[in-house]
Amino acid sequence: MNEPRSDDPSQAPSTPPSERYGDSGSGVAGKVVAGFLVLLVGALVVAGAVAGYRLNADPDISAEQTGVTVVDDERTDLVMTVTRDEPGTPVYCIVRAQDQTKGEVGRREVYVPPSESGTIQVQVSIETWARGFVADVYGCGDDVPDYLRG
Questions:
Q1: What are phi and psi of 12, to 5 degrees?
Q2: CA-based nearest residue to 97, from 66, 64, 67, 126
Q3: Which of 70, 78, 75 is nearest to 110 (CA)?
Q4: Is 10 or 27 the better-scoring residue by pLDDT?
Q5: In angstroms, rounded to a whole number, what is the distance separating the alpha carbons of residues 81 and 54?
Q6: Smaller CB count within 10 Å for the chain: N or C?
Q7: Cα(83)–Cα(95) distance, rounded to whole angstroms?
Q8: What is the pLDDT of residue 23?
Q9: What is the DSSP string of 102-133?
Q10: pLDDT (tens digit per residue) in 50-109
Q11: Strand partners, 126
Q12: Residue 107's Cα: distance from chain center in Å?
């Protein structure tokens, strides 16, 4: 009366039959794939670290607006302080004038020649197509375009 049933869990084999699934030993192909994945993850970690460093590194060139004068509807004057680690390197800065809604009404690229001091003050006039309200420094760089050097 008490015969073992075919769905009894105690009767199930503990390992799958090898003829159904093949040899489960670790092959060379599996090791190659695992090694490739380890190298890929390592490369991604290194690339992320480099990108994070570049984004958070202190810039070699910085500029700050220190004064603004709205002259009229067609001109806004800006005084900025430019600081660079290598004063002998020429740089350029992009400055812009904005109206009350922060819409850009004028923009100019400014050549900053080499100097003896790491920090210099530069005065700039920005031509505008509408009355400016404020002006600021958009950014600076040391890859000076040829047309500004002339």
A1: -70, 140
A2: 126
A3: 78
A4: 27
A5: 24
A6: N
A7: 15
A8: 58
A9: S-EEEEEEEEE---SSSEEEEEEEEE-SS--S
A10: 887 776 655 688 899 999 999 999 999 999 999 998 889 899 999 999 999 999 999 999
A11: 76
A12: 23
